[in-house]
Design a protein that fits this description.
Elements: E1 4-8, H1 14-24, E2 29-32, H2 43-46, E3 56-59, E4 62-65, H3 67-77, H4 92-114, H5 131-143, H6 155-169, H7 177-187, H8 190-204
Parallel strand pairs: 1-2
Antiparallel strand pairs: 1-3, 3-4
The chain binds glutathione.
Length: 205
């Protein structure tokens, strides 16, 4: 099997993909970068991800960047883990919607709230519309559970779940009961527990 290497900084957005790798259960290597020391701006890393950001995943000769894209890629590439919704399954549209909703709606809504612009753009200009609508839509989606697609845990839960965990941790989103119950369910997943424990060790080293 082609080798998997995660370019990672602990903890950071690359922790999303580490959790995903643990869910997949295939062996992988970690290439650790120090964002404080600027490893991500060094020429050898910029050759991998010209954005100078983590995560990046190397799979054989293929490089994938963007956390949600990495999660989607891994889910499709390793279908045995049953973390994707395959082409042809009527639930795939909803699955893809949530994979994209994380980086295109939840994250910008949170960041704009944390660092507001001097002049608030018109709602129509913002791809996410407005913060409260994003929160309401996500709360409704996670309220039934146990996961976004019902009984099946998917890569979309890794993306959306990471956004909610991170958002509440940094007080960038409200601790709504639906969010707390959902992240509580996610916290009991052994793959998340392993990746968190490993990241804590890396961060302390
Ligand atoms: N859109 C990217 C964002 C990645 C990102 O912002 N990563 C941060 C770590 S949380 C980073 O590499 N920051 C270092 C820097 O920008 O200098 C993704 O979703 O993967």
């Amino acid at each position: 099997m082609a080798k998997l290497t995660l370019y990672h900084a602990a903890p950071s957005r690359s922790s999303i993909t580490r959790w995903m790798l643990e869910e997949i259960g295939e062996p992988y290597d970690i290439h650790l970068l120090s964002l404080n020391k600027g490893d991500n701006r060094a020429p050898d890393y910029l050759a991998i991800n010209p954005m100078g950001k983590v995560p990046a995943l190397k799979h054989g000769d293929v490089v994938i960047t963007e956390a949600a894209a990495i999660c989607a890629y891994l889910a499709d590439e390793f279908p045995r883990a049953k973390l994707n919704v395959p082409v042809g399954d009527p639930r795939r549209g909803v699955y893809l919607k949530w994979l994209f909703f994380g980086p295109s709606c939840i994250e910008p809504a949170m960041i704009d709230r944390a660092a507001p612009r001097k002049e608030e753009p018109r709602r129509a200009m913002l791809g996410y519309g407005d913060f409260d609508t994003v929160m309401d839509v996500v709360a409704k989606a996670v309220s039934k559970g146990p996961y976004l697609l019902g009984d099946q845990f998917t890569a979309a839960d890794v993306v959306i779940g990471s956004g909610l965990r991170w958002g509440m941790l940094f007080k960038l989103m409200p601790e709504r009961p639906e969010f707390l119950a959902y992240v509580g369910r996610l916290a009991s997943r052994p793959a998340l527990q392993r990746s968190e424990a490993q990241d804590k060790e890396l961060a302390a080293a």
